[in-house]
Every structure is written in C-alpha cells, then in structure tokens.
C-alpha cells in the first residue's frame, strides 16, 4: 500500500512538472501598450528581447534580479519576446525550459512594417534589446544591453524619486 | 548632492544625444574608405559614376541579416546594372562577436554568393551615419560632387517571409529616384540586432 502511495506521489509530481510548461500568451503590441499606459500604481518594466539576440539573452539575469515590489510599490516585469509568432513552439518554449526567466514572458505580435516601433518609444530605432519603464505618465527608455544598476536608476526616475 | 545628480543626468542626456546623432534624409553622406573581403580598399569616391549606392550596415551573425541576405543579392542583381549598386558594411567588433570577424566575412560571402562588396568597418563609420542596428539601410543619391541620403531604414516590410512582402521600401525608393521623383517613403524602422562596439 505504501509503495502504491509513493508511486502515486511520484506520478503526481512528474505530471505536475509536465503540466508546468510556461504559458507564453500572444499579445498584440497595441494591447501591451494599452495595458502599461493605463495609469495605475504599478511600475511596468518591459524588456523587448528574442531568443536569437545574444545581448538580450545575456542580460536576462539582470531582469531576474528585479523584485516584485520596489519601496512598497508593485513592479511588473514583462519579458516581451520578438521571436516570430510561428516560432513559439520551436524556439521560445524550449528556450524557457533551458534558461531561467523569472518574470512573465509574452510573445509580442506586431503589425506589418515598423511604425509600431516609434509608437512604443520615439527614441527606439528598432535594435534589440530595448527596455521601456513606465509608471503613470513617467517613462524611461533604453536601447541596448542594460544592467541591474541602470534598471534601478530608470525605475527610480519613473517612480518620482 | 541634488545639483550633482542633475549635473549627472544632464551629462548622461548629452552623451545619449551625441551617440544617437543620426544622419537624416537630405543630409550629405560621409565619405569612407574601408577594406573589402578581397583585401582591396573600397571608397565612396569609387562610385562617382553611379546614380546612387545602397549602403547596408550588415554582419554575419544576426538572424535578421541572414533573413535578408538573398534579398540583398537580388537588389544588386536588379539595381547594380541600373547604377544603384549595393555595398554591405560590417560594423561589429569581432572581439565582442567573433563570428563577425574578417575571415568569417570572407567565408560567409563565398558561401552565400555575395555579388557585392562586403566591407569591414574598423573605423566606426556607422557612428557617422548614425546606424544603430543590422540590417540598417542608407540609400544614397549621387548629387554630382557628393552623395545625399534619400532613404533610411528597412529593405522591405516583411523580414520573415520574402514571398509575402507588400512594401519593397528600398526598391520603391530607387524606382522613384530613377524616374526623377522623390521617394514616397523616406524613413522606416525595423527590428534588428544592435551594433556591437566598444566605446
């Protein structure tokens, strides 16, 4: 009986592990902007990255260090992948199994052409990685590889310190 | 302390502004002389007898560049004979990305059958253009004694699928120039790889 229980426990654990495949929702970039530009007490940190982008992959641990709250204020980090939507199963999900990405990952669905890039931030030329931090009407943008210290500075800037 | 912080912020803002100084459409293009994969020097002056030049900041490793390599070959095939040849320039520092080193440029060009010069930018020419990513296109127009920028941006509107392109930005801009008109679209943005360099 005990063995059966142990077996059942082992089975339930392995099933749980299998069931824990990361959820990576497809999100239209317009929906993403609507979400982060709607005024709230949350500080949004959005990192535009892709599995194929070397400096993006290198800087992920810097984002993993960001706490969920910053001096009592909620911080939400969104890792917005720019991999092609039809590569979610073949690239993004396997990547997430082999790398530690602690925050929410979305697959950014973008319209044809590049007009949406300026809509995210006028300073963005389109190179990735790029990071946008928003809190109410305060925003801070950075194109290029970033580190934790710079992220903290940017969060400080938008939180009105 | 607060003054110091503001001073720091202003210095940072200034530094960002300087680094982001971009050539604009209508600006005079900076000249250059860079080494080609055949070990010969190529300069913008060599193109005085052309109507214009398609300058593409490019590299070996960037998947977005790889998606466009065959389209760069097609552009050269179609517009080279019409006096709008293509030049690819690799601005990446190979001490940061070894795959973008000169010897790999040579093998990459041979494997893909590049029909255009592929130059090594070891002088940070990309800064003078204000290029920030690969691929990043600057379409230059010959004005007689110099070249001006006629278009900046992407080759077309669909990196992933060449068969599903609706706007061929570079081709359309060249067609307009060949017809003696101004390109309708002079600037586009696109996703690409950052240019890897040391300050």
TrEMBL record, chain A:
Record key words, sorted: Isomerase, Redox-active center
Quote the InterPro entries the UniProt record gives.
Answer: AhpC/TSA, Thioredoxin-like_sf, Thioredoxin_CS, Thioredoxin_domain, Thioredoxin_ResA/DsbE_sf
Protein origin, superkingdom: Bacteria
The segment(s) forming the Thioredoxin domain are 4-160
What GO molecular function annotations does the UniProt record carry, in alphabetical order? antioxidant activity; isomerase activity; oxidoreductase activity
Please report the name of this protein according to its UniProt entry.
Answer: Thiol-disulfide isomerase/thioredoxin
Classification lineage: Bacteria, Pseudomonadati, Bacteroidota, Bacteroidia, Marinilabiliales
TrEMBL record, chain B:
Point out the signal peptide segment: 1-21
One GO molecular-function entry: oxidoreductase activity
Enumerate the UniProt keywords alphabetically: Signal
Q: Which InterPro entries match?
A: AhpC/TSA, PRX-like1, Thioredoxin-like_sf, Thioredoxin_domain
Matches recorded under Pfam families: AhpC-TSA
Instruction: Tell me the ranges covered by the Thioredoxin domain, including all copies.
Output: 23-179
Q: Has UniProt tagged this entry with the keyword Iron?
A: no
Q: What's the name of the protein?
A: Peroxiredoxin
């Amino acid at each position: 009986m005990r063995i059966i229980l142990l077996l059942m426990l082992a089975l339930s654990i392995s099933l749980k592990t299998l069931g824990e495949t990361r959820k990576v929702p497809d999100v239209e970039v317009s929906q993403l902007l609507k979400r982060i530009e709607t005024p709230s007490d949350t500080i949004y940190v959005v990192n535009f990255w892709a599995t194929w982008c070397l400096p993006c992959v290198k800087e992920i641990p810097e984002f993993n260090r960001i706490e969920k709250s910053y001096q009592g204020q909620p911080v939400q980090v969104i890792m917005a992948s720019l991999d092609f939507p039809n590569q979610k199963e073949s690239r993004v999900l396997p990547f997430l199994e082999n790398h530690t990405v602690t925050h929410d990952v979305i697959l950014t669905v973008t319209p044809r052409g590049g007009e949406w890039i300026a809509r995210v931030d006028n300073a963005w030329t389109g190179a990735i990685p790029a990071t946008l931090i928003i809190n109410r009407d305060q925003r801070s943008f950075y194109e290029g590889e970033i580190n934790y210290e710079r992220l903290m500075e940017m969060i400080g800037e938008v939180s009105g310190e | 302390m607060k003054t110091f912080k503001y001073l720091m912020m202003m210095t940072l803002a200034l530094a960002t502004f300087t680094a982001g100084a971009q050539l604009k459409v209508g600006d005079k293009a900076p000249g250059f002389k860079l080494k080609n994969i055949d070990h010969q020097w190529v300069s913008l002056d060599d193109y005085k007898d052309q109507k214009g030049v398609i300058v593409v900041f490019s590299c070996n490793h960037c998947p977005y560049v790889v998606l466009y390599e065959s389209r760069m070959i097609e552009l050269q095939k179609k517009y080279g004979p019409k006096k709008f040849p293509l030049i690819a320039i690799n601005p990446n520092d190979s001490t940061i990305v070894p795959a973008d080193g000169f010897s790999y440029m040579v093998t990459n060009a041979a494997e893909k059958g590049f029909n255009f010069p592929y130059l090594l930018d070891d002088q940070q020419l990309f800064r003078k253009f204000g290029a920030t990513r690969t691929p990043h296109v600057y379409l230059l127009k010959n004005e007689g004694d110099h070249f001006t920028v006629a278009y900046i941006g992407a080759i077309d509107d669909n990196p992933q699928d060449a068969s599903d392109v609706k706007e061929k930005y570079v081709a359309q801009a060249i067609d307009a120039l060949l017809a003696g008109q101004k390109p309708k679209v002079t600037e586009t943005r696109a996703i690409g790889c950052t240019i890897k360099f040391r300050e």
